[in-house]
Amino acid sequence: MSSINTYSGSYAIDASHSELGFVARHAMVTKVRGSFTEFTGTASSEENLQNAEIKVDIDVKSVDTRNKDRDAHLISDDFFDAENHPKITFASTEVTAKDDATLSVTGDLTIRGVTKSVTIDFDFTGEVVDPWGQTRVGFEGSTTINRKDFGLTWNTTLDNGGVLVSEKITLNFDISAVKQ
Fold first, then answer.
1. Where do the Lipid/polyisoprenoid-binding YceI-like domain residues begin and end (predicted)?
2. pLDDT computed for residue 65 by the predictor
């Protein structure tokens, strides 16, 4: 495998072979997983990550937790307020190599109109030329955010003093991108 520093060019996320997911603790005892099914993203870089740039736009209404009532609640004003904030966006501000196979991406994450800087480490999972002649690269990463930092403050207290939805949310990324 080549070093991530040797890659250059423009890439587009293949949404049909990628996942942007999240995990939240529910009722303090279990985890609920979800994802967004509609998103676009691009990445471009010169060799040695010079002028590297990553941008992602997520359609909030595409949230899918395998429960229609919960999904409707998530896009309501209690959480994402999709009516007024239809997109979640990410724009990198710095992309560096931690080593030959790990990217550290810092950028501005905007949820519900609130922008915060986050850093995500991505493991490079490989490069392949697919059966259609396209060069495809893969990356996996995750980070944890506090949802309250982004104005997602709705909650309810449980009888035992805990809360229904955790403040800590883990964001998971499995990315397949095609060279343009």
1. 10-178
2. 96
